[in-house]
């Protein structure tokens, strides 16, 4: 289960990296830091299956939420 979640998290990481096309530099660095925090949590808690499955879900949800809020309220556009 850990390896699947890690693979999914790495795929999601691609979207975090290419977010630089939409997000200004300072929030982008914070977004990357958030992804790294989630990656560390995934690796450190790999013995808890429910937690491991939840990390990629949180990563996708937070990515969508942050980009949507930035577009909606801060005017981030491509």
Can you walk me through this structure?
The protein is elongated. Helix 1 packs antiparallel against helix 2 and helix 2 (25-44) runs antiparallel to helix 3 (49-74). It has one domain. The chain is mainly alpha-helical and 78 residues long. The chain starts with a helix and ends with a helix. The protein contains three helices and no strands. 79% of the residues lie in helices and 0% in strands. The mean pLDDT is 93.
Radius of gyration: 13 Å
Structural class per helix/strand content?
mainly alpha
The helix/strand series, from N terminus to C terminus, equals HHH
- Domain count: the total is 1
Strand content: under 5%
Helix proportion: over 70%
**Main pleated sheet:** none
The coarse silhouette is elongated
First-last Cα distance? 36 Å
Mean of all residue-level pLDDT scores: 93
Quick overview:
The chain has 78 residues and is mainly α. The protein has one domain (2-74). It is built from three helices and no strands.
